[in-house]
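USER:
Class, as today's exercise, take the chain set out below, and explain how the chain folds.
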Amino acid sequence: MSIDGIGERIAGSIYKEVAVENIRIFSRRYFKSEPFGLGSASWNDTISFAESLNLRQRAALLEIIRQVSIDAASKVFSFVEGCGTLPGFSADFALTYDGQDIGQDIQTHFLNVDEASRQEGADGRA
């Protein structure tokens, strides 16, 4: 398999799982009565909180979840690219696919996908 553009494609796929799919899952769990887990007290508290929100507040909560997901993935990619440091580790990290290093610019590709997605959303609302 050719790896031309694979970093961009992987970043796009990860974005779909981290941002798009997470929001779909959380939206169902919080707002469409499809809970998961064993119903711990803390989980039940989050469900009660979410159900108390109006539509605008629910959208804001989902945006917070989306942004935290993006930030967490971006932070991991910063370690792979070498622009972030992980305390206690001095060697470089690498991200490979089919034996080829694809970590170069993976964080940039990921954030570009996020920016394009935000722009599409803004254009769709205009």
Notes: The CA atoms of residues 1 and 98 lie 8 Å apart.
